[in-house]
């Protein structure tokens, strides 16, 4: 059980120490948000545990133990495994792409029987791990070199391109954004971002041609959703109606009219925020946003207290990832950005998203538990 | 910790702070957006939520009209008013229906349907309490409406036939779509949709039907229609123009009403236009579109006079003596007879040991073609048929339109039968007997045809062309006809000299003293008609009857009486109009074709020539008033058998 105990100089963390060191406040926050999710799934099914709420609760329970396990395994094991995890996630993404190619039509998941695994979601964690390790290892004096930027750019672009091809625009954008954030935190010069932005501007017309028609339509309808109220603009219009009609305090639990009358076909997944906003109004929506902000703040606090660069980057990356999910989803539902398929973390119905998110929080807690562990260039402990 | 490491630590902290700041800004944007949507624009979205959902509805197009040759509507759409009740607005549905029941009659079947629909449909869907309201019933409900919450009067379109029974057989009728007729076209699944079931309504259904329109309606969260957003009007059905002259048709209907059961066809021999097509008695097709009562259906379908059958095109009768022009023409063409060949008629004809009787027991004496037709001498035609043979008679009969449907452009036409040797053998396995040729020579036995075929025969005789009658006018209506147009039909290939001889004989039938229909002649020489009478036997006359005197007229049950037929054309100088009349079972008195059918032909052809629909340049505002009273049928005092 060496993995569960760690040497920090003279001090040795036992398993018991670690379990005590887990940020139980964060765990309570996660449980609270998930609990809101269960209630919303119960409401989405018109006041029934079937078919969504009960299964989502089961998944939460199943994922809870691995989350704590991830938190207590020595952080250096995660450091050493970082590239491997990234590699496995990449292989899974490729496998899905190939199968989608062979089986004709878009398939974003691998059916494991008890769960439909979406490798692109696992990739979000894998990317954070790999980039955190990479920037941890780059010597500070070399961080400004352009050659040092080539590996992370490929680490980001390869999975992003593969996911875009699935086609899953939302997750691809999410990978790009979270990769950029890690580069930013890792110390890449600001002018590189400016250069990248210019490059993206030049590449945009090419990328536009690679987009599928439905993705183009979504961008168009984002610009003018009223244009086609029966077609692609339907989602945005309907979710705005659901939100807006909620008012300050909402219509009350299980009393939402829009969400219950099946105006929104994906109310239990990507558009679940509309149920919260319709039934609990502005107050309910802001409470949920506040809970999200608390989780992110908790993540930042944990990360900044870590003594290792890997730990800091990992913690900030996980927190930023969580933020991106939550922001993209809610902004999309409110009509601030185009409709891209991104779930609301911990709340939307969906197995992989739930489990990935929980394991991510496990890593975040791991950073907190091992905040005093110093990590060398190759993952050996360093005396501080 | 080196200075560089320290510097990097600071950089990370700075950038983490920037990131947190960026996230805070974005989070703030979310909060502002929520405030905007949920507080500032709440009212707008609350209203939209109330009136949510957009639905597409199908609108039935108005069905095309059917017009006569002058543009008079024979089939039209009229508004149909029905009283509906919305259960949720009514509160107490049974009470409301009972209250309506005090104002108008609601049948037991309607009650059952309301109960059934109330259980199956949403409470906001209007239920039809009763359709086809009269003005008076509507007024009674309108007055009581303030005390009847949830009750409304809706308007729909219903097929209307302004002339009622006047043109029912050719027009057909419309009725609800049956399960078998569904093609996947959603239009057919509309609850009120009607399709043509017979006659022109069926033959031209696709043209008349038109294309569906759509209506986009906004429906609130409960499916109630809030408002109409956009309407795409349907493509109304196309109007269909018939060659019929409705005023003439009405005249014929009235003239025919004196007999129990008959049919009459009037054609424009040049164009083939059907000017009138009457089968009497008839039915009212409007009753079919409003819904027939079982009692009425029972009455119509069991009537021995077959009001539901179009006897003019589907009634099959032995043509009797009206078939004789065919036999004469076949013989002349074949050279089996010349116009001067003489046959002596002693009143009977012997073939082997069988005896065939002439209708005139005393005999006609020496007969040639002209007198043979004029006096309708059976013996003359026994001998003619014997000489020319059945096969050549059959060929000529088919050439003149018998033996198969002539091809009228509505469904339901029957073809009758024309026997020949080959057909007889194939059908019965028994060889053709020479005696049967004689029977066929006077249009009896296996020879049968429809009134339409008789009229077609007359049209072909007067034009020498293969005229095909038609109801639809491909050119549309209101065509001024300045010059006599050349007929578009192909030549029959019959020597015009023989045709002229046969027509001359038919002229003599009506216009010469001693002709079988002399009593029914038209005295105005400019309008004189020619024709041929016929009386076809329905039963066999037994030897006992011949010996003890044949029972006449009313002594025979109606169903066993002879049919009375007459085929005619006019004017004799330049024939244009032809008319065929078949009076089933000889009419009321059981008289022959010349006594019963010929006077009808005379009156119809006289009226046709007065109206002259083929040549008349119609006025834009057609207000034809047919004679107010039907002319009295001609006296039958000098009726002769034909």
Placed side by side, the strands forming the largest sheet of chain A appear as 1-2
Largest sheet of chain B: 5 strands, mixed
Specify the number of helices of chain A: 13
**What is the domain total for the residues of chain B?**
2
CATH topology of the largest domain in chain B: Beta-lactamase
CATH class of the largest domain in chain B: Alpha Beta
Structural description of this entry:
With 384 residues, chain A is an all-alpha fold. In chain A, strands 1-2 form a two-stranded antiparallel sheet. A two-stranded antiparallel sheet of chain A has the order 3-4. Chain A has 13 helices and 4 strands. The mean pLDDT of chain A is 84. In chain A, 65% of the residues lie in helices and 3% in strands. The two termini of chain A are 24 Å apart. In chain A, helix 10 (234-246) crosses helix 11. Chain A has one domain. In chain A, strand 1 and strand 2 (11-13) form a beta hairpin. In chain B, strands 2, 3, 4, 5 and 10 form a 5-stranded mixed β-sheet that branches. Chain B has 23 helices and 19 strands. In chain B, helix 14 (324-334) crosses helix 17, helix 14 runs antiparallel to helix 21 (496-511) and helix 16 (378-388) crosses helix 19. Mean pLDDT of chain B is 84; it is low at 620-642. Helix content of chain B is 37%, strand content 17%. The longest helix of chain B has 38 residues, at 3-40. With 642 residues, chain B is of the alpha+beta class. Chain B folds into 2 domains: 56-241, Penicillin-binding protein 2a (Domain 2); 246-611, Beta-lactamase (3-Layer(aba) Sandwich), CATH 3.40.710. At the A-B interface, helix 7, helix 10, helix 11 and helix 12 of A face helix 1 and helix 2 of B.
């Amino acid at each position: 059980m060496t993995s569960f105990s760690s040497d920090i100089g003279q001090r040795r963390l036992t398993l018991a120490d670690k379990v005590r060191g887990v940020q139980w406040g964060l765990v309570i926050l996660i449980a609270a948000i998930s609990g809101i999710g269960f209630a919303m799934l119960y409401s989405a099914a018109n006041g029934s545990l079937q078919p969504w709420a009960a299964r989502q609760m089961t998944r939460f329970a199943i994922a809870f133990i691995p989350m704590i396990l991830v938190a207590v395994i020595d952080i250096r094991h995660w450091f050493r495994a970082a590239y491997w995890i990234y590699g496995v996630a990449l292989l899974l993404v490729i496998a899905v792409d190939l199968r989608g190619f062979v089986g004709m039509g878009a398939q974003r998941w691998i059916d494991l029987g008890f769960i439909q695994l979406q490798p692109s979601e696992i990739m979000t964690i894998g990317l954070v791990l790999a980039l955190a390790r990479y920037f941890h290892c780059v010597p500070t004096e070399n961080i400004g070199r352009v050659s040092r930027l080539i590996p992370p750019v490929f680490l980001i672009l390869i999975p992003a391109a593969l996911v875009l091809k699935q086609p899953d625009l939302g997750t691809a954008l999410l990978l790009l954004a979270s990769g950029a954030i890690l580069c930013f935190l890792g110390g890449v010069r600001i002018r590189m971002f400016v250069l990248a932005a210019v490059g993206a501007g030049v590449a945009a017309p090419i990328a536009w041609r690679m987009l599928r028609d439905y993705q183009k339509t979504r961008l168009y309808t984002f610009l003018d959703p009223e244009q086609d109220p029966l077609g692609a603009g339907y989602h945005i219009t309907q979710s705005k109606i659901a939100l807006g009609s909620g008012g300050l305090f909402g219509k009350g639990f299980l009393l939402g009219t829009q969400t219950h009358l099946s105006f929104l076909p994906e109310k239990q997944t990507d558009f679940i925020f509309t149920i919260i906003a319709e039934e609990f109004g502005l107050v309910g929506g802001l409470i949920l946003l506040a809970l999200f902000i608390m989780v992110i703040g908790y993540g930042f606090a944990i990360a900044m207290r870590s003594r290792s660069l890997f730990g800091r980057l990992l913690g900030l990356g996980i927190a930023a990832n969580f933020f991106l999910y939550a922001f993209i989803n809610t902004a999309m539902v409110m009509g601030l950005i185009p409709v891209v398929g991104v779930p609301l973390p911990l709340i939307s119905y969906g197995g992989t998203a739930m489990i990935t998110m929980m394991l991510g929080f496990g890593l975040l807690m791991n950073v907190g538990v091992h905040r005093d562990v110093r990590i060398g260039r190759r993952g050996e402990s360093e005396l501080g | 910790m080196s200075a560089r490491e320290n510097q990097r630590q600071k950089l990370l902290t700075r950038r983490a702070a920037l990131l947190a700041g960026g996230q805070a800004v974005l989070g703030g944007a979310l909060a502002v957006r929520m405030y905007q949507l949920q507080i500032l624009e709440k009212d707008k979205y609350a209203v939209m939520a109330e009136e949510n959902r957009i639905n597409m509805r199908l609108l039935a197009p108005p069905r095309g009209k059917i017009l006569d040759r002058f543009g008079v509507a024979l089939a039209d759409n009229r508004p149909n008013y029905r009283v509906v009740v919305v259960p949720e607005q009514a509160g107490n549905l049974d009470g409301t229906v009972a209250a309506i029941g005090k104002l108008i009659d609601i049948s037991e079947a309607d009650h059952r349907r309301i109960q059934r629909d109330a259980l199956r449909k949403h409470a906001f869907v209007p239920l039809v309490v009763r359709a086809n309201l009269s003005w008076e019933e509507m007024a009674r409900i309108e007055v009581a409406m303030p005390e009847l919450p949830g009750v409304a009067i809706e308007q729909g379109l219903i097929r209307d036939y302004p002339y009622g029974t006047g043109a029912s057989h050719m027009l057909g009728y419309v009725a609800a779509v049956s399960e078998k007729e569904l093609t996947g076209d959603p239009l057919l699944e509309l609850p009120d949709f009607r399709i043509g079931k017979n006659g022109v309504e069926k033959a031209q259904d696709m043209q008349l039907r038109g294309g569906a329109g759509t209506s986009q309606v906004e429906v609130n969260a409960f499916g109630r229609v809030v408002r109409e957003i956009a309407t795409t009007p349907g493509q109304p059905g196309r109007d269909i123009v018939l060659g019929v002259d409705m005023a003439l048709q009405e005249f014929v209907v009235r003239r025919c009403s004196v007999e129990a059961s008959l049919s009459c066809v009037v054609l424009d021999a040049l164009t083939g236009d059907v000017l009138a097509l009457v089968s009497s008695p008839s039915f009212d097709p409007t009753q079919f579109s409003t819904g027939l009562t079982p009692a009425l259906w029972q009455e119509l379908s069991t009537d021995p006079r077959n009001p539901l059958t179009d006897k003019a095109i589907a009634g099959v009768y032995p043509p009797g003596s009206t078939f004789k022009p065919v036999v004469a023409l076949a013989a002349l063409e074949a050279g089996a007879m010349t116009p001067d060949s003489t046959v002596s008629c002693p009143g009977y004809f012997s073939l082997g040991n069988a005896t065939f009787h002439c209708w005139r027991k005393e005999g006609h004496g020496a007969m040639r073609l002209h007198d043979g037709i004029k006096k309708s001498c059976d013996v003359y035609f026994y001998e003619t048929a014997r000489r020319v043979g059945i096969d050549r008679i059959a060929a000529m009969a088919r050439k003149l339109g018998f033996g198969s449907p002539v091809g009228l452009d509505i469904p339901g036409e029957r073809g009758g039968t024309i026997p020949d040797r080959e057909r007889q053998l194939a059908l019965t396995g028994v060889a053709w007997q020479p005696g049967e040729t004689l029977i066929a020579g006077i249009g009896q036995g296996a020879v049968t045809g429809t009134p339409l075929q008789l009229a077609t025969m007359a049209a072909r005789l007067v034009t020498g062309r293969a005229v095909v009658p038609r109801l639809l006018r491909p050119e549309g209506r209101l065509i001024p006809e300045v010059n006599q147009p050349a007929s578009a039909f192909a030549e029959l290939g019959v020597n015009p000299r023989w045709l002229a001889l046969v027509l001359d004989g038919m002229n003599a039938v009506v216009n010469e003293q001693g002709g079988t229909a002399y009593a029914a002649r038209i005295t105005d020489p400019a309008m004189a008609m020619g024709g041929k009478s016929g009386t076809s036997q329905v039963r066999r006359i037994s030897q006992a009857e011949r010996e003890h005197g044949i029972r006449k007229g009313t002594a025979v049950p109606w169903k066993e009486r002879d049919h009375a037929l007459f085929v005619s054309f006019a004017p004799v100088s330049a024939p244009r109009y032809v008319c065929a009349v078949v009076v089933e079972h000889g009419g009321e008195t059981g008289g022959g074709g010349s006594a019963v059918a010929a006077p009808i032909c005379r009156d119809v052809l006289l009226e046709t020539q007065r109206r002259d629909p083929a040549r008349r340049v119609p006025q834009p505002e057609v207000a034809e008033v047919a004679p107010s009273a039907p002319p009295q049928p001609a006296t039958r005092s000098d009726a002769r058998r034909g």
